[in-house]
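Predict the 3D structure for this chain.
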Amino acid sequence: MTSTQFTWIGFYEELADKLLTYRSRRNVLINKLTSVYESIGMQLPKLEADELRDIDPFTVFGLFNKGIKDASRQKIIAGIAEAFDVEAEQPKDFEGIPVLNNLNATFYAFADDDRRGEHDIDNLWRVLEAEIVLAGEDSKENRKSFVEAFDDTVTQFGLGWKLTMGLFWTRPCSFISLDSRNRWFMADVAKTGATIASAVPKEKDSPIHDGERYLAICDTIKSKLASVECPYTDLPSLTAAAFVESERVNQERKAAEKLAAEKAEENALGDEGGQNHALLDLLPGRRCREMGRLLRTRRDGHWLEQARQRRAIRQQGRHPQEPAHPVQEQIFTEELCACALAIPARAEAGRRHLCEARAERDSWTRRCRGKLRVRQERRLLPKHPQSSLDAQW
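Done. Predicted structure below.
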């Protein structure tokens, strides 16, 4: 741990101590939070269906531990530090802190929700008190009090793994967060060793509702820290490593999916047009029949070189004033774009031009189909251009 890492620990622990003094003065706590947001020029998030009348300490921590920018988090923390007289240095980083979903940032159900119990918020305050006492003195009696508070609280609506996140925020060196990212990371024997991997619930497991088991998991992890199997010196370092590794894996997965999508699009270029070549053969005119052959060649996978050869021949024999055929020019544009897709530096430009060319080609094809439908209704396909409909061929 360096001097610039985990600067949030001291502030978070002192704030937890300060909040505990408001356990029986929650109306004062709510008023202070409202004043904090007014002073920093931000709107207090929606924490209740109507008027906010009660709140728990972990939801207060959730105000600046959710999916918002670091600048906003520091702004909120600065206002809270001033309102609650927190003397610890304000955080310069948020490394290793698990965050809440913005749409699920409270530790209780709203008051009008039938799933909210009468003592739900009181239980959360009990957990905070028991946690702070146990972190200060690990005794059998304190463990029993924590287990009882944990068991009474963890089954409340919307908690489960989220409760362990709150425990980590308030005492990060004593209690581990069992959010999905940490469970995924610690289940890997290569990352944390066989002992921790066997003790920690897996990523898809249901939340544990047993305080004794949760304390046993914390004890197991702490006993293996700074060992050969688990080189991390403390719990914050472990959770920070989990975040870094999961972000790396996610980026590699996104890159692989993007590459697979590009390959699929490239391969699809050789298959498209099979539905249109028969239509082009039916339409009168040498150029339509030639485009039908070009599309079939393109579909068979050898279209690029042959298309270039055909284009060179046509350019040599074309009258200077003769306009280029729209479908031919669209296919040639797609050929150039397909070549650009193979060059990483021009991939984005190639895909953009390809989309434009395909859109124009599809528009032209729809017009052809409409004209063919009209001729089929007349039950006559002229052998030579005789009408204004055929003049363009």
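The mean pLDDT is 81.
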